[in-house]
Write a structure and sequence with these properties.
Length: 75
């Protein structure tokens, strides 16, 4: 009897954003979206519950990337 542990998949904020967008877009079912991104449906529900926090952090990440890019371009 072998017990296989489920591999945990941790998504970055850049990867969580599209999950939220797909759900809000409404063209696919939540279970299909969860399968496409390789996450359990309850994890996706947690993303949706924390949507504001995730989107705020995603926005900060994007702004930081742009400022870093500009810093290197104008040196």
């Amino acid at each position: 009897m072998s017990s296989s542990k489920r591999m945990l998949k941790t998504l970055t904020y850049e990867e969580k954003g599209p999950v939220i967008w797909e759900v809000e877009n409404g063209f696919k079912t939540k279970s299909l979206i969860a399968k496409e991104f390789g996450i359990p449906p309850n994890t996706m529900s947690t993303y949706l519950k924390n949507k504001e926090t995730i989107l705020n952090k995603l926005e900060r990440c994007i702004q930081q990337q742009h400022s870093n890019k500009n810093k290197y371009l104008f040196k």
